Amino acid sequence: MIILAGWLFARFLSVPLIYAYHTHVPEYLPRYKLGFLAPATWWAMRLFHCAAELTLVTSTVMRDALQQNKMTGSDEDLDVWKKGICCETFHPRFASAEARRRLLAGRSEGPLLLSVGRLGWEKNLHSLKAIVDAIPGCRLAFVGDGPARSSLEAHFAGAPVAFLGLLQGETLAAAYASADVFVMPSESETLGFVVLEAMASGTPVVAVRAGGIPDIITRPGETGILYEPGDVQAATAGVKRLLEDVAFRDRVARAAREEVSLWDWRAATQYLLREQYPAAMAANARRRAQAGG
Predict the structure, then answer these.
(1) In the chain, what are the domains?
(2) What are the tens digits of pLDDT across the range 157-189?
């Protein structure tokens, strides 16, 4: 309904219409046993996005997927919106013993992994149990909530895993900065903001090579560790290396922090205003001229 309302207002006011594509719905449908709806979903998405002057996506992978499925009227109507974060909001200085104790949830000290985000079926979070089981003394903390929480709690029953629910503000920033390794097993991220936040916090990331994540970790082995979808052994090896080689972990953390500074929100906003908005206005002017002719 929001998409329809936006389309109606844009046409009524004769102003450019820009859509921002954040959730790759066709990818999620099979995970909720709704894969049969994918063709209809693509059709509906094409209907609305072809009516827009510009569709902004969060990564080159998403851009390529939408181009392949002819989502917009032309490839020129599709562009990457390089999102930004505040590198002062998420910073290594927020690390604290108190935050670490919260993540450990009363358990003794040990290697501490962190996952932040929606606890959804599409996030592939159940796969993290194999990593926890393979590393002696390993602990894992989930920050976030969602429909798969009860299933995850049952799946991890008896394991050294804590479910902390939603955290915000400095409490969330402290959680990021106080873990040893951030793990990201989701294969369906259009970007992966939590990966950016972890990198800004000085916590090295082990993530699946899928979705928009390779656009963030552009130098695997230097700014983070990527593994192929489904390769839990490689994921475990990556986590182990970061935990066991402190010098390597520190190098990755520093390089990741430097890399993520390129994702500053000010630069992202300036590009949007300087390049993408004018392109949408020019496309709208052409559309109106053609309609008038």
Answers:
(1) 2-84+264-292 (no CATH), 92-263 (3.40.50.2000)
(2) 999 999 999 999 999 999 999 999 999 999 988
